[in-house]
Amino acid sequence: MYKKVLATIMAAAMIATTATTVFAEETTEVAAAEAVAGFEAPEGVDPSEYHLAICIHSMDNEYWAQEAAGAKLAAEYYGVNCDVLTCDSDDNKQMQGIKDYIAQYGDKACFVVDPSSTANTVNIAETCDEAGVYVSILAHRAEGLYPADYPHFVASLMLDDMAIGKATATALFESIGGAGQVAELQGLLGDDSATNRHAAFEAALADYPDIEVVDSQTASWSQSDAMTLTENWIVNYPELKGIFSANDTMALGAIEALKNAGKNGEIKVSGCDGIEAALNAVKDGDLVITNANDGFCIAGYGASYAIQAALGVLDPETIDPAERLIFCKTTLVTADNADEIIGNFIETQNPGYDYSDLGYCVDAYQEAE
Amino acid sequence: MNNKRRGLLETLTVGQQFVARAEDNARMDKIRRYAPLILLVIMTAIGGISQKNFFSWANIVNIMFQMSIPLVISVGLSYVLLLGSIDLSIEGNMGFAGSLVAFLVINNSNSNNFGIFGIIVVILIGVAVGALVGFLHTKAKIASFIVTYAMGCIMTGAAILIYRGTPIQVKDPMFVTISQGRLFGIPYITLISFAVFIIGAIIMNYTAFGRAVFAIGDNEAAAASTGINITRTKIKVFALCGCTAAIAGVLQCMRLKLGQSDLGLNQMFPVVTAIVLGGGSVSGGKGGALQSFVGVLIYTELANWLTLMGVDTNVKKVIQGIIIIIAVTLTVEHNRKTVVK
Predict the structure, then answer these.
(1) How close B193 gets to chain A, by Cα (Å)?
(2) Which residues of chain B have pLDDT under 50?
């Protein structure tokens, strides 16, 4: 008898713990009939029966929160329900969340996933394909994993780190007149974004023979490490004219060091990612350029691909395989457009994208060489 | 001990041998006590000789800036290490203090303007959190590294809840003044850290509480038998460490002007290393405020020098690790305990 009670309690506890991975956050109960004008579901399909899982790392990072907001906007547009599943960058937790969601909603489930790791993308694609639910995977893709090999892996949407890094580096070089001493703040060693952005910096250098790189150090994405390095550089390289930073947080650290030394504006800094503090720094003229990675675009359109496939509007197998490998649009932010970006991305939290126009998000295709 | 001395020892009686050994140990102890200082002088000399900018005033100011926050952390952490415990909550505590203070002073996300009162509240919370850790450690008998790790997680989470993912930008002119201001060329932040250090050193060396901490670290049972209240002393030590962690968090926020949990990240272990470099011990009973000061200075100079040298970033960490291992091998006393934990 006791054993039975105990077993029931254990079972209840287990269900409760798995259920907590699903943030049942503001499920959008928008019926198909009253859905936003513009999208009409095909005959006999009721979008309100469908459920989109937005799988991200966590809500405590600006960019991931922006991805969740973008995917929610898309779900609202199509009139499907949505839930945010967080995994704290844990592969197992993310897989478990996906499996639980499939168990709950069956073939009425669809997914937009920012994978916990590059390696996990294979598991995600296989699991969803076996269950017959549609999925878009953002930001990472394992070597050799192609949507064309899985009927239900609709599309891979990534950011073109190479193009972005090259553009911010080029803008920095131009701001110092294309010549002089520059230092580089690298991201965490071994991280693939850090590696790509470092390669992009080197690629941009090739076009500027008069730029001399005096030092290149990792600040491990940390603002305080970047500040310390910059303080030391200011002393050691009095001729320093520019600092290339692989992300905004480190760029903000460099700016604080420059302010303390009275060199702000004299030495130019570039960032990347488009966090709020950096957008404000661009607006104030402290930062030459940053790139708004635009979670509204990548996650919103990523969700749209999966939803359209689930609703039967889009048949992934009729798309050219190369066109399922997308580099998403992002926006370079300079003093000219900082106000507009802050308005769209921070204040209204809605850049007003038309999520029915899937082609809009495409900047380039990943393997178009 | 060389072979000649060993030969000599064998001709002595047991009693004489013991005395000779004790004298040897005392002599080695004396050398070891000054080893960190010698190391500091060598480090400084190498820095000055190899880099022309090392002794420039601007670089000295940099070193003062860069040692301020580790120095403040070391004040509280020295006490904890003297007990033979560890406080892993420092980073979470710092992140929380920095995030909360950014929230309370003039900032870009709300209309708060509590100024100096905000800072005081944050530091008091740090003390309370430290005291709670000490209470759980002594009363609930949870090992210090477990309870402090858990508290660190709680504080990091609480910090993120304050700013909800978007770090708060500090706009308070007071913060700008403190982070950029100088008195006779010395940064205000450094002066504040020196003040914290001096208070910490006085408490450690000239109060009954300070002596009790040394006694507990050396031999807890013996300390208890002399009437020292172990529980109360330990709670005070963790409260003090929470206090300095909160001050460090506030100072870090002043430096960076951005309130987020990351500002405590990777701040603790370098300070533990620095304290050991200065002659402190992680198993308790050895060290002190001055030793910690010397250690922090050695560590900061090393990091500064490696950047000035322009060492490749991949090689830098390796060199840093090797130098630390060599330095600790030279300075730490090996024969006190047979087992190294």
Answers:
(1) 17
(2) 1, 337-341
Cα distance from A213 to chain B (closest Cα, Å)? Answer: 11
**Angstrom distance (rounded) from CA A271 to CA A185:** 10
For chain A of 369 residues, list the mean pLDDT of each consecutive stretch of 10.
61 53 43 53 88 91 91 95 92 95 94 93 95 94 92 94 94 96 93 90 96 94 94 94 96 95 94 94 95 94 96 91 93 94 91 92 82
The CA–CA distances, whole Å, from B231 to A306, B77, B126 equal: 60, 18, 19
CB contact under 8 A, A235 and B65: no
- Check CB contact under 8 Å for A236 and B314: no
Could you give the CA distance from residue B32 to residue B280 in angstroms, rounded to a whole number? 11
Asked if B167 and A277 come within 8 Å (Cβ–Cβ), the reply is yes
Chain A contact present for B58, CB below 8 A: yes
Q: Tell me the residues of A at the B interface, defined by beta carbons under 8 Å apart.
A: 59-62, 64-65, 186, 189, 214-218, 220, 222-225, 227-229, 231-236, 249, 252-253, 256, 259-261, 275-277, 280
pLDDT of residue A24: 42
Q: How far is it, in rounded angstroms, from Cα A61 to Cα A247?
A: 14
Contacts of A308 (CB under 8 A, 6+ apart): A78, A314, A358
Residue A136: φ, ψ to 5°: -115, 140
Q: What is the DSSP letter of A42?
A: P
H helix or E strand, kind and range, residue A85: strand A81-86
Instruction: Flag if B314 and A253 touch (Cβ within 8 Å).
Output: no
| SS3 call for A220 | coil
Confidence (pLDDT) at A98 = 96
Contact check, Cβ <8 Å, B307/A65: no
Question: What local confidence, expressed as pLDDT, does residue B172 receive?
Answer: 94
Q: Write down the pLDDT at residue B97.
A: 97
With CA atoms as reference, the chain A residue closest to B65 would be A228
Q: What is the pLDDT of residues A208-226, one digit of tens each?
A: 999 999 999 999 999 999 9
Q: Which residues pair with B22 in a beta bridge?
A: none
Q: Over chain B, what HEC string results? A: CCHHHHHHHHCCCHHHHHHHHHHHHHHHHHHHHHHHHHHHHHHHHHHHHHCCCCCCHHHHHHHHHHHHHHHHHHHHHHHHHHCCCCCCCHHHHHHHHHHHHHHHCCECCCCCCCHHHHHHHHHHHHHHHHHHHHHHHHHCCCCHHHHHHHHHHHHHHHHHHHHCCCCEEECCHHHHHHHHCEECCEEHHHHHHHHHHHHHHHHHHHCHHHHHHHHHHHCHHHHHHCCCCHHHHHHHHHHHHHHHHHHHHHHHHHHHCEECHHHHCCCHHHHHHHHHHCCCCCCCCCCCHHHHHHHHHHHHHHHHHHHHHCCCHHHHHHHHHHHHHHHHHHHCCCCCCCCCC
Pairing mode of beta strands A51-56, A109-113: parallel
Q: Which residues of B touch A252 (CB under 8 A)?
A: 256, 258
Task: Say yes or no for a CB contact (<8 Å) between B108 and A218.
Answer: no
Return the residue of A nearest to B52 by Cα.
A236
Q: Is the ipTM of this complex over 0.90?
A: no
Q: To the nearest whole angstrom, how far is the Cα of A64 from the nearest Cα of chain B? A: 9
Best B50, B60, B62, B107 member to test A by mutation, with max A CBs in 10 Å, is B62
pLDDT at B337: 47
| Domains defined for chain A, CATH in brackets | 27-159+294-330+348-365 (3.40.50.2300), 161-292 (3.40.50.2300)
Token pair of B231, please?
A: 């529980």
Residue A342 to chain B, least CA–CA distance (Å): 13
Mutant choice from B171, B256, B301 vs A, greatest count of A C-beta within 10 A? B256
